[in-house]
Specification:
By secondary structure, this protein is of the alpha+beta class. The longest helix is centred in the N-terminal third of the chain and has 21 residues. The chain has three domains: 83 residues, no CATH class; 303 residues, Beta Barrel (Porin), CATH 2.40.160.10; 38 residues, no CATH class. Strands 3-8-9-10-11-12-13-14-15-16-17-18-19-21-22-23 form a 16-stranded antiparallel beta barrel. A two-stranded antiparallel ribbon has the order 1-2. Strands 4-7 form a two-stranded antiparallel ribbon. Helix 3 runs parallel beside helix 4, helix 3 crosses helix 5 and helix 4 crosses helix 6. The radius of gyration is 26 Å and the shape is globular.
């Protein structure tokens, strides 16, 4: 199906999706009713926050950076509601940024009230639900539906094998000592076929977080999903739930944080200077594709140190500890990276350096520079840029240098949603070859606290064949 045909089908399909809603379990508890009634008077006494206030925009940035998207504020909110958002987003994190500390100081009295109310309610609920779930474990759930098509997309179809009658050039057969006249199996060449049909993908994820000391965090991600719209980077492991990542994070003193785990990025504790939050798999790396240390070797570990005043340093490692190759051995592959980052209220930059083993004899090295600026004024976008250069240790001297870059603009207050555009190299450009570019535009609109719709359009250069043009709509649920 060609792209324009797919677009005719898309509105009808979306119409079927519109009625979908996620309904939470209902608890008929008198304590909840009393808690709600007791809070009404307190809420009404607090002044309103408006989108023009610095704290309002800081709250939106907090929601995005801490991945608590079901709490994105829309329109004016009370100080009590702001405190509730801060409490929900930061209660499970041991390390906070300078801007997050400023928010805590600004709403200190309201936070004290929120936490006292919540603690009292939790105590009553625990009496009712004792033994049903750990009181220190927080579970969050998300689901994504996506519908779309990509014009120019093709797939490789394996040629398979065929049985044929062997013959010489003249067609004669039956000479002793050769295969003439006999059936032989031959390998057919692979072919390409169009893959432009309208597709529907889904992804589902469960995130579990447990704290044992109040400062540490054991995080487990379980997910499932399938589909063909790879640019949206949805979970694609199939219909069965699998553990996608597990990590334990804990502080060492007041300034150092450490983590280790499996199926995690070595850069988990990095603070790359980028505030662009696009939905595609290609441009969401902010130009920091290889230095970000998402090699996928299995075992991962890292540490970060907060010098204060916005300056941080971090290191990350990945290795094959879950295989017989082992960690730090000649037989196993290893990757290590380091980063220095500096961020203030509306700007920041970072430098990241990585060395990645690709074989027992070859290493790739990469360096990335990232920066962002957010004017924090209505109508003006934040700007994020990134540039990475590297050396491919397995290639010849005239083909071993690579470059990769990105620029993204994001408006956080276009109507009730967020609008973004970006451009960058679709893949790192090898020296003496042409750049392959990608461009995208998207708009993320919150239908309510737990449902967001994001339409996306992009074009992507191909080294051979037609360029790709994709139109997709993703519907995200969080609960």
């Amino acid at each position: 199906m060609k792209l324009f045909q797919s677009l005719l089908v898309a509105p009808a399909a979306l119409g079927l999706l519109a009625p979908i809603a996620v309904r939470s379990a209902e608890f008929n508890l008198g304590d909840i009713s009393r808690y709600s009634n007791d809070s009404v008077e307190n809420i009404s006494n607090f002044s309103e926050l408006y989108p023009s206030d610095w704290s309002y925009k800081a709250l939106r940035e907090l929601v995005v950076s801490r991945n608590c998207s079901n709490l994105i504020p829309s329109g004016s909110i009370s100080r009590f509601e702001a405190a509730s958002i801060i409490n929900s987003c930061l209660k499970d994190f041991a390390q906070i940024t300078v801007q997050e500390r400023r928010l805590i100081d600004e709403f200190n009295s309201e936070l004290a009230l929120v936490r006292s109310r919540v603690d009292g309610l939790d105590a009553r609920l625990n009496e009712v639900e004792a033994g049903s779930f750990s009181s220190t474990t927080v579970a969050s759930f998300s689901a994504d539906f996506a519908i779309g098509a990509v014009n120019g997309k093709t797939v490789t179809v394996p040629g398979g094998t065929s049985t044929v009658l062997a013959a010489n050039a003249t067609g004669t057969t039956d000479k002793a000592g050769n295969l003439n006249g006999k059936n032989v199996v031959v390998q057919n060449p692979d072919t390409t076929a169009p893959a432009e049909a309208l597709g529907f993908d889904y992804g589902y994820q469960i995130d579990l977080t447990t704290s044992f000391t109040g400062q540490d965090s054991l995080d487990i991600s379980i997910d499932a999903g399938q589909g063909t719209l790879s640019e949206l980077d949805l979970n694609s492991g199939g219909n069965g739930l699998v553990v996608d990542g597990i990590a334990y994070t804990f502080p060492l003193g007041d300034k150092t944080t450490v983590f280790f785990g499996n199926s995690m990025d070595g850069s988990t504790l990095f603070s790359t200077a980028c505030v662009y939050g696009g939905p595609t798999n290609t441009l969401d790396d902010c130009g920091n594709l290889n230095s970000a240390l998402a090699v996928g070797l299995g075992t991962a570990a890292g540490a970060s140190y907060d010098f204060g005043n916005g300056l941080t340093a971090a290191v990350g490692y990945e290795g094959q500890g879950a295989t017989k190759a082992g960690l730090g051995t000649k037989e196993g592959l290893d990757a290590i990276a380091g980063q220095i980052a500096y961020s203030k209220e509306n700007f920041g930059f970072s430098v990241t350096i990585a060395e990645i083993e690709t074989s027992s004899t070859n290493d790739d090295t990469f360096t990335a520079l990232n920066a962002y600026f957010d004017p924090m004024e209505g109508g003006l976008p934040s700007v994020s840029v990134g540039y990475e250069w590297g050396d491919d240790g397995s290639e010849a001297e005239n083909a071993d240098e690579t470059t990769h870059y990105f620029i993204g603009l994001q408006w956080d207050e276009i109507g009730d949603g967020t609008f973004g555009i970006a451009a960058g190299t679709a893949t790192p450009t090898i020296e003496n070859t042409d750049e392959l570019m990608m461009y995208e535009a998207w708009y993320s609109y919150p239908i309510n606290d737990g449902m967001t719709i994001t339409p996306l359009v992009f074009t992507k250069d191909q080294s051979s064949g037609d360029d790709l043009t994709g139109v997709m709509v993703k519907t995200s649920f969080s609960f």
